[in-house]
């Protein structure tokens, strides 16, 4: 199932927005993003309810078809669960957009500034080519954690035990990520709880992503060097994959007035950014291997627990 979902992403990429369930959930979150009360405290309380309940919508929507398919055949359930994982992960589109931005920085700054809006939220109108490449690399590292590792790991852990639970977990995590990306801003009291929940959910995936980048680069000690800057960004998690990628590339990654990672190095060249795309792709493969190993270990452990211990039986 993991290989099926990963291969499907590489072959076809993300579905169009109009038919993508994650985009449908984003529309729902947009409807929730309103002034429910006149007080900031009231908005925060509403935000707590949104953070607790809204991700259950995609979780339920993912679990039900897997359950229904399981009533037909186990293979059907596996296929539907694989489709859920495919819809909650994204790698090809991320790498292609990053490459497009990087290529445009060489001779078409306006296109680069326009395309990078799909990766970062910062004002790109005055950014230099190197700063645009920095933003693209930062986003690619961070989105490897959000767009692949965060949903892949719980799916791999739960799939040997329950396919509906695995699909629900992947969709729930994607729901949490979507809430944070749309509501988790300091200017939005309604998103405070969603941002906090996302910080908790992403703690482990961000660090596993950083380790995957270090392994992919053949530089495991990069994690130690990255720890010097990993806590500089306001997010408790995004700094880990970004700082690790900065260290293995020996480049400086900078968001103006926010953070400066590996500041003694130079901002990335086109060649540095191209290598970053390659490394993130390899890190994704490392994460998939880890996920397959995790699923295998869970399967073996579950089989061991189900086997009754019979002692003193003479055949």
UniProtKB/TrEMBL annotation:
Sequence intervals crossing the membrane: 45-67, 74-95, 152-173, 279-305
Pfam families on file: CobD_Cbib
Known pathway: Cofactor biosynthesis; adenosylcobalamin biosynthesis
InterPro entries: Cobalamin_biosynth_CobD/CbiB (IPR004485)
Keywords of the record: Cell membrane, Cobalamin biosynthesis, Membrane, Transmembrane, Transmembrane helix
Membrane topology classification: Multi-pass membrane protein
Protein's GO biological process: cobalamin biosynthetic process
GO terms for cellular component: plasma membrane
Compartments reported by the entry: Cell membrane
GO molecular function annotations of the record: ABC-type vitamin B12 transporter activity; threonine-phosphate decarboxylase activity
NCBIfam families linked: cobal_cbiB
Entry's family note: Belongs to the CobD/CbiB family.
Function: Converts cobyric acid to cobinamide by the addition of aminopropanol on the F carboxylic group.
Annotated protein name in UniProt: Probable cobalamin biosynthesis protein CobD
Species per Swiss-Prot/TrEMBL record: Natronobacterium gregoryi (strain ATCC 43098 / DSM 3393 / CCM 3738 / CIP 104747 / IAM 13177 / JCM 8860 / NBRC 102187 / NCIMB 2189 / SP2)
């Amino acid at each position: 199932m993991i290989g099926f979902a990963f291969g499907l992403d590489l072959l076809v990429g993300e579905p169009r927005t109009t038919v993508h369930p994650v985009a449908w959930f984003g529309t729902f979150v947009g409807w929730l993003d309103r002034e429910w009360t006149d007080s900031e405290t009231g908005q925060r309380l509403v935000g707590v309810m949104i953070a607790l309940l809204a991700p259950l919508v995609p979780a339920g929507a993912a679990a039900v078809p897997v359950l229904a398919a399981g009533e037909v055949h186990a293979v059907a359930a596996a296929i539907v669960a694989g489709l859920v994982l495919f819809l909650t992960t994204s790698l090809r589109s991320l790498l292609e957009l990053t490459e497009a931005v990087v290529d445009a920085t060489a001779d078409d700054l306006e296109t680069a500034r326009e395309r990078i809006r799909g990766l970062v939220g910062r004002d790109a109108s005055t950014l230099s080519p190197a700063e645009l490449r920095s933003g693209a690399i930062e986003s690619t590292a961070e989105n490897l954690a959000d767009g692949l590792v965060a949903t892949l790991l719980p799916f791999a852990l739960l799939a040997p035990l329950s396919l509906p639970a695995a699909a629900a977990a992947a969709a729930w995590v994607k729901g949490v990520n979507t809430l944070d990306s749309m509501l988790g801003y300091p200017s939005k009291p309604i998103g405070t709880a969603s941002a906090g929940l996302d910080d908790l959910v992403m703690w482990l995936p961000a660090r596993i992503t950083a380790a995957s980048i270090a392994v992919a680069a053949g530089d495991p000690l990069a994690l130690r060097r990255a720890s010097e800057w990993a806590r500089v960004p306001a997010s408790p998690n995004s700094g880990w994959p970004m700082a690790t990628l900065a260290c293995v590339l020996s480049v400086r990654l900078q968001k103006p007035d926010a953070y400066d990672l590996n500041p003694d190095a130079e901002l990335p060249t086109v060649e540095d950014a191209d290598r970053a795309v390659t490394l993130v792709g390899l890190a994704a493969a490392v994460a998939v291997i880890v996920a397959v190993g995790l699923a295998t270990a869970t399967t073996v452990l579950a089989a061991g627990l189900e086997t009754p211990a019979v002692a003193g039986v003479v055949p």
